[in-house]
Amino acid sequence: MKKPIGIFDSGFGGLTVLSRVAKLLPNEDIIYFGDTAHVPYGSKSKEVVTKFSVAIAKFLSEKKVKLIVVACNTASAFALSRLKNKFKVPVLGVIFPGAKEALKSSKKKRIAVIGTEGTIKSSSYTKAIISLDNQAVVYAKACPLFVPLVEEGWINHRVTKDVAKEYLTPLVRKGIDTLVLGCTHYPLIKKVIKNLINGNITLIDSAEATAKDVLNTLKKLKLQEKAKSDGRHSFYVSDSPEKFKFYAKRFLGYNINNVKKITLD
């Protein structure tokens, strides 16, 4: 019997992680949980985010998942250590994979990280990067308007371009050579960001880095699915399945129908 991978996020952004994991591991079953009743996490306290994260991880554990991916940067920043201590299954976040990928790409060790207020205030990316290389210089900036702009569908809108210019110009002036997209919504506006930064700056998509980490972890623990059949994807939310379906198409590029609403303990 196949054991699925569990992935959760505060809402829709983690679907970028699901998309990358599914591409890399097409045979794996995946259960995705979007905490749409409590989105966004980026402006909430550590205690509240940790409480929600524990409840979701408990739900996924009851679904017999073999690995849990915290596909939310804020939850990774606030709750990852608690989840690792509390649950027997391996738990991965999105921050360390992104930090490792950033250092691998950076030649000048001048790295910028953009994310939600919660992620940036936690200094998790900065701490992760410095712990791996104490010679690195890290600039972190909260970009709170990006998430609502993405969810509004303003992917190539002039307003999004203007906001991105305000956020990113000071970072470019710092002489960075690597920029970490520290929020799973941000890959959707990757083109806008690329057009604003010079070609010498490498963009790090933490969703892609996390998918590689999932693959390596499953291989290491000998948990990789051997069956050649296509994996099945199941979706659960804490509120409004119809709204989730609408946004899911924007993030995944295709329609999904199997979305169930559940109430967490």
What keyword list fits this structure?
265 residues, alpha/beta, 11 helices, 10 strands, 17% strand
Structure explained in plain terms:
With about 260 residues, the chain is an alpha/beta fold. It is about 45% helix and about 15% strand. The chain has helices spanning about 15-25, 45-60, 75-85, 95-105, 115-120, 125-130, 145-150, 160-170, 190-195, 205-220, 240-250, and strands at about 5-10, 30-35, 65-70, 90, 110-115, 135-140, 180, 200-205, 235, 260. The strands form 2 sheets. A 6-stranded parallel sheet has the order 4-3-1-2-9-10, sandwiched between helices. Helix 9 (about 190-195) links the parallel strand 7 and strand 8 (about 200-205). Helix 4 (about 95-105) crosses helix 6. The chain is globular, with a radius of gyration of 18 Å. The two termini are about 25 Å apart. The mean pLDDT is about 95.
Question: Which helices and strands, and how do they pair?
Answer:
Blueprint: E1 5-9, H1 15-24, E2 30-34, H2 46-62, E3 67-70, H3 73-86, E4 91-92, H4 95-105, E5 110-115, H5 117-122, H6 124-132, E6 137-142, H7 146-151, H8 158-172, E7 178-181, H9 190-196, E8 202-205, H10 206-220, E9 233-237, H11 241-252, E10 259-261
Parallel strand pairs: 1-2, 1-3, 2-9, 3-4, 5-6, 5-7, 7-8, 9-10
Helix pairs in contact: 1-10, 2-3, 4-6, 4-10
